[in-house]
Amino acid sequence: xxxxxxxxxxxxxxxGPVRLVAVDxxxxxxxxxxxxxxxxxxxxxxxxxxxFPVPWEEGPGPxxxxxxxxxxxxxxxxxxxxxxxxxxxxGAYAETVPVPVAPVLVIEGVGTARRSAATLTAFxxxxxxxxxxxxxxxxxxxxxxxxxxxxAWFKAEEAWFxxxxxxxxxxLVHRT
Length: 176
Description:
Elements: H1 2-9, E1 19-24, H2 31-42, E2 45-48, H3 64-76, E3 81-87, E4 92-99, E5 104-108, E6 123-128, H4 131-142, H5 147-164, H6 166-169, E7 172-175
């Protein structure tokens, strides 16, 4: 991980003075774990897509607008960003999370490495795992009562990734 961190630090800034790293891939693939390890090696913050409300029925597309407005646009202008973290357990917004201008920021989640934000991204990582492993992970995390919703989400994100070409544009593919 240290060699990847050195490689990323050597890149030109991409989002104002920040090197933006997107860790993307299907649900349950291990993105959060990978992003945490990478951020530790880079000594930087991680912003998670799970900190934003992502409506099941709308798929991975719409949530990104909030990240773009509250974090990416300010950083691109050289100013700090901030967002209100969404608490999924309470179903309400929680604390405000500051995102200072820093050499590197990792964003992780389904749809973070989207084509429409490619000019802001210095480096993208695609994390993948077999579908049965992914399903087992999300059901372990969220409970078996959401299995139907997860099957529908898997189809929605598969269509999203196919249309966006996310995996094909990744700088690194990591299998878990």
